[in-house]
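G., the chain you wanted modeled:
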Amino acid sequence: MASTKGDGRAASGRQGEEAAQELLERRGFRIVDTNIRFGKTRGLTGELDIVAWDGPTLCFVEVKTRRTGGQAAAAAAVAPGEAVTPAKQRQITRLAMAYAARHELSDDIPLRFDVVTVLLTPGDAGTVRRADLYRGAFLASDDAAAAE
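Predicted structure as tokens:
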């Protein structure tokens, strides 16, 4: 059975998200939702990777996974955290505001945007080399929040 490049990326992504969930749970987060899509209505494309409570704060966690190894990969790779571009931040902000509205969350509930970066070893059976949590990695973008 042939494997495509996209299949490998999807498998790495799933592995990274599992590692991120484990990290968050070890740090005391309570995961309430994963892989939330809203469809393409109201321009809400994309996905929220993980939604979790960190005490009284509702966190929207973006997971970025990369494989390590190989000179070409090292030269071309972007650090996982750097992949959360301003455009991606706006997208996550819009999705988070829609999530909060869908679940009728009070405006008093603090929201936070975190990033978990996961580095996997090379190969199909890569293992988690490192996972890091960046709390408050970015702030809600004003233009995205105003659009809701």
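The first helix runs from residue 5 to 26.

Shout if anything looks off.
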